[in-house]
Amino acid sequence: MFSLSSWKHLRIPFSFYLLPIFIFALAFTPNHHAERMLLVFLSLHLFLYPSSNGYNSYFDKDEGSIGGLKNPPKVKKGLYYLSLVFFLVAIILAALINIYFAGMVVIYGLVSMAYSHPAIRLKKMPYVSWIVAGFFQGCFTFCMAYAGLSDFGFEVLLMPHVFIPGLLTSVMLWGSYPLTQVYQHEEDAKRGDQTLSLKLGIKGTFLFSSIWFLFTGLAFAWFFLDRNQDWAFYGFLAALLPVVLYFYTWFWFVKKDENKYANYSWAMWMNRISAIALNIFFFWYFLENTQILQVI
Q1: How confident is the model at residue 72 (pLDDT cuts 50, 70, 90)?
Q2: Residue 213 CB: number of other CB atoms within 10 A?
Q3: What's the DSSP call for residue 69?
Q4: I want to staple 138 with a disulfide (CB 3.0 to 4.6 A). Which of 4, 8, 21, 169 is the partner?
Q5: How confident is the model at residue 295 (pLDDT cuts 50, 70, 90)?
């Protein structure tokens, strides 16, 4: 459990890529409480997400590159127990806020386990896994973070002012998620997994994601303009610009030689650019929207 290989598979730095959702939820939280902010951040980003990474790595037993690890070491039994310890710590930290937030952490963890566990293995179901992964890493995570930050419970899932921006994050992830699978076709096929990207093919994945990116832009435009936040709309467009430019540059190279360019390095740079741009935007939105909420 304490081997370096097991800790590498937790991929703790990879949590950075889900940080925009936490910051976006923070922007809608009316009462900021320093202790709750710290507990939610630690529970989700330092323990829950790494637990999910490690658990899925244990059952996938990837030999090729995976998100955050170009050359993953061989998994050991200790990784399984380490991932469960991290899951338990995530639940305990969440319970320090309230039992309902802890319950949401448990649900997220169990769904993520179902993604790779051989008894269910959602990864074998291309459309189901795409919907489930996008919803739980997006909308459910947004609502979960909001619940923890605000000391609420499951009722946040029924609050339109929480659920709607949460759903927007899922729309964004439904577009980008298949791109994270384009360099794993050979290994997924060897295991018998049917990811959405494998189903669509490499070029089909890029076309699919381009349509969803357009839909994402329109959805966020509607959301910000409906709230009379023109400044946020233009800021979001500015944040998307480097992401879109990189995406279409990558797509251009892939059309020339998909075997050469649909690889780990290109995919990880897509993740990095997206995460950096969106973290900056959502942090700025958090600062501006917090001032508006305080005035109201």
Answers
A1: confident
A2: 20
A3: B
A4: 169
A5: low
